[in-house]
Amino acid sequence: MSAPKILVVDDQPINVQLLKRKLEREGIEVLTAYSGLEALDQVVEHKPDLILLDVMMPEMDGIEVCQRLQGTEETRSIPVIFITARSSKEGKLEGLGVGAVDYITKPIDLDETMARVQTQLRFVAINREMADLTRRLAEARRAATIGAVTQGIAHNLNNLLGVVIGYLDLIKAYYDKPEQVKRNAAQVEEAVHRIVTIIKQLSSLVIKTRPPLGKCSLRALLDGGVQRYRQDYRHENPITIDNPLGDLTIDSNTEVFEEVLAKVLINAWESYDAPSTQTRPITVRTQRITRPDEGDAVEIFVEDRGRGLNPEIRDHMFEPFISSKNTVGVGMGLTIARHALRGLGGDVSLVDHSGGGACAILVHPIERKARRLLQDA
């Protein structure tokens, strides 16, 4: 492990030399500067772990140096201990107010200084360990997600290709029976459609650009999402829209929003165990909410009366290829829906419905300035 690196800044050379000698005896690498500008140059070049900074210096004092360090992302995290002749509470608060983590009062007590330095170096080490752990955890999550997606794609595509090959064999076996050929060809077409859908879903997960936003009517977005659902999935089950917010204008992307709502609606439709010929009612209702520090948003509830959430997969509903249905070609509908809505600054969650079934809750910010843009793991 390399020795910690500390920058000592003071316009008085004797103070610099005293601190340098004490720190080097403790195995610490010491950089020195005798002015504010020189200190900033040293920080850029050497990236010290900690800075001991005199407050009272000509041309650029320690307060301004600290403010400049706080104003840059690369140097903001470097802890600064002020060395000050001010013993008043106001003077100390001023230093802490501009970002310093501690202060030392002149005349300098070297043992006290060393104790404060060691404390801050321990914090630096802990922060680095936490940052490294966070990075490794993010990498592990990405690797796990990639593994799950890859495994899911391979499993689903292999199953669907098996379906295609099976029905093609039937077509060849019964080539002289037109009606049976027609039925088998329809099954081949459906399997190919599912393959194409999986590929499209995967492409939408890879795209990282933020969709452009515009002023949209909530009523039009809801109607468009229902129409998209009916076109894409060819279901005519009753969908009740309870939208007291009417034509409320929100900053959204029509294409993305309609895709999200369509995917959530098909998830609600598939929650029913009843045959497809039986009614599968779904209700869509809205309300306006205020989120602390995030501004106003719209909550959209998509409610069904199906079988509810499966406890065995409750915590994994938004992972790729997770489903309680034994269906060939299960894709990434909810994964895509959450990913897309987060790109608009919102989110999707699933909860049990109090009257039976499940409820998907879509949260969408109303104004662009209130967007909360989230990262996928």
UniProtKB/TrEMBL annotation:
Q: Top-level EC class, please?
A: transferase
The terms under GO molecular function for this entry are: DNA binding; phosphorelay sensor kinase activity
Response regulatory domain boundaries: 5-121
UniProt cross-references to InterPro entries, sorted A to Z: CheY-like_superfamily, HATPase_C_sf, HATPase_dom, His_kinase_dom, HisK_dim/P_dom, HisK_dim/P_sf, Sig_transdc_His_kin-like_C, Sig_transdc_resp-reg_receiver
Question: Where is each Histidine kinase domain found?
Answer: 152-368
EC number(s) on file: 2.7.13.3
Modified residue annotations for 4-aspartylphosphate: D54
Q: Which UniProt keywords apply?
A: DNA-binding, Phosphoprotein, Transcription, Transcription regulation, Two-component regulatory system
Q: Does the keyword Transcription regulation apply?
A: yes
The chemistry this enzyme catalyses reads: ATP + protein L-histidine = ADP + protein N-phospho-L-histidine
Which PANTHER family does this chain map to? HYBRID SIGNAL TRANSDUCTION HISTIDINE KINASE C, TWO-COMPONENT HISTIDINE KINASE
Q: Any idea what this protein is called?
A: histidine kinase
Organism field = Horticoccus luteus
